[in-house]
UniProtKB/TrEMBL annotation:
PROSITE patterns assigned: HTH_ARAC_FAMILY_2
Keyword Transcription regulation on entry: yes
Residue ranges annotated for the HTH araC/xylS-type domain, each copy included: 191-289
Protein name in the entry: AraC family transcriptional regulator
Family matches, as SMART domains: HTH_ARAC
Entry keywords, A to Z: DNA-binding, Transcription, Transcription regulation
Amino acid sequence: MSISSVQKYRYQEPLTTGTPTFFEVQRIQLETSCVANHNHRADHYQIYFLEEGMGKYQIDFQDVEINGAGIFCLSPGQVLTVESEAVKSGYQIGFNREFYCVETHGKEIACNGVLFNNVHRATTLQLSPAEAAPYQLLLSNMIRELEKPGKAHREMLETYLRMFLIEVLRMYDERAGWTGEANDSESRLAEDFIALVEKHFRTIHAVSDYAEKLFVSPKSLAKRLKAHGYKTPTETIRDRIVLEAKRDLRYTAKTIKEIAFELGFEDPAYFTRYFKKAASESPQAYRDTYQNDRVIS
């Protein structure tokens, strides 16, 4: 984003061992009118809440547009491209797994595989002023807690974050036409599969291996995915592998051989054929097309 001023409010916790806990809210004032071709690759979970204005973006090459107020989410590794903006103000919430683990804590509210760790659908919500109000209130509460920490400081911040995520999920489900526990149960398998692919796509490429982890047959898995508008399991796995390859080809200087090995292909030639079948061009041809996109923050 083309930022003119930022106020940062960060949670602080003494580091003992391992990765430091990270939670931050940024209050962002943007240029009244600006256009930028800027790439940003997320290294933690991020939620963008735009209060007023408009913006055109790409999230992992999927077009996203906000007019007025809106919300979109990024998972670690996803690439956000700002194509144009005319936004007055917004917020950015950032956190890592050490603060709030989407894969475990998020499972309780089913945000894993829906808001996060689902590269097959960019989660975006367009909001009216009335719909934006609850999110503004929760962000104000987060900032107040970060400015004046009190008893159970971390627990309070986690509560506000969970409330924010639940509000987004409720609105997302309402617009998708999903209501009630039956639909929750029906969609959970699809969401769990998406999350598993996100976790294991570098090392597990066979549908049967994922089906085994989910205690269902490959046929049952395919049927459930189709019922919720997803592609087949094979296509879902393929798309995730190819997406990661595109990220690396477009935004890094890794060799094609390195990319192939990191994605679980022992034979770079087979990886080239796999990629070309899915993307209709070779890895090298794809890289050459976007050779000017290497700059990334």
